[in-house]
Amino acid sequence: MKQERIVADFLDQKLYTIKTIFDSVQRINDYTNQLLGCDVKISIKSENMINSIVDEKAQLYYLNGGLPTFAFELSFFISTGKIVEGWLTSQSKTTEFYQLLWLTAEENFDEVTKIKKIEYALLSRNRLLKYLEEEGLTIKDLREKAITISKMEAGAHEKEPHKHFWFFNSTHLAEKPVNIVIKKEVIKKLAIRSGFVE
């Protein structure tokens, strides 16, 4: 949580102050809205974004520029052992856009100055889901895949050379999430804005 706050401070200082991109940015600090998938409200009038709800997602475990992919959560387990729908397909989330973040930072960074660079991609949730549907995966398909893969062994599933995405069962993590992993090159093509801030 502390590192997420530091990343948020970095973005507020270095990214969201770029007036040639953002017409307005409002940081949302209340816990209830954050649980619903709202970290900031962003307006980019040239993209018809007016107070759009954005969920910031950072790769905090890979701090050397991040992986050439991004993982989108389909399901996870809570402490009772019940499987719960992940943030990508959950209807309870109010998220309209994801601000996906790849960091270059010192290990265990504890202040803004220890973040050297962040690569970002502002991606419409609907555009992402439409892309997956075009690739043969509806929301219903994604939900079914999450349940099936949660019962399978750890690691990558349905990873094929010609595909730009695959599924991953992270049984080594406490919540055992099932993710759909998508290549960064695809994400950047789908994103409405992407770039670097230092």
Write the SSE topology.
Layout: H1 2-14, E1 24-27, H2 31-35, E2 40-44, E3 49-59, E4 69-77, E5 83-85, E6 97-105, E7 115-124, H3 125-134, H4 139-150, E8 155-157, E9 165-169, E10 178-183, H5 184-190, E11 193-197
Parallel strand pairs: 3-6
Antiparallel strand pairs: 1-2, 2-3, 4-5, 4-10, 6-7, 7-11, 8-9, 9-10
Model description:
Helices cover 24% and strands 35% of the residues. With 198 residues, the protein is α+β, with helices and mostly antiparallel strands. A hairpin with a 7-residue loop joins β8 and β9 (165-169). It has 5 helices and 11 strands, in the order αβαββββββααβββαβ. It has a 6-stranded mixed sheet, sandwiched between helices. It has a 5-stranded antiparallel sheet with strand order 5-4-10-9-8. It has helices spanning 2-14, 31-35, 125-134, 139-150, 184-190, and strands at residues 24-27, 40-44, 49-59, 69-77, 83-85, 97-105, 115-124, 155-157, 165-169, 178-183, 193-197. The longest helix is centred in the N-terminal third of the chain and has 13 residues, at 2-14.
